[in-house]
Specification:
0% strand; 4 helices; elongated; mainly alpha
Amino acid sequence: MGSNPSPRTFPSRAPSAEDKSITGKRVSPVMDQVMVIGLVAGFITTLGYVPQIAKGYRTGRMDDVSVFMPLVLIAGMSLWLAYGVLLGDVPIMFWNGVSIALNVAIIAMKFYYGRGAPPVTR
């Protein structure tokens, strides 16, 4: 009744010189796959900001964009970034840093185009 399930283990074999991740730590091949999944997931998620930035740049208008949403996202992503730093987790650190920069760009465009800058025709 009181037995805890065993923790997840990775394949047991002696680590080789090739078993180093981009952080320089020795990891198993499974961990490299986990990092790839994290990097791809972060890329896809972060890609979601690009259409809004492209549309704002192309039209020179950001009046339909809330400034509150990117501010809240920056606060949350900053905590995720700190969490990633504490864990040394490259995908979490990298993609949250990129997402923070993209949200800052959205806010900057909102204020730039909101103060009467002439619309840009492209």
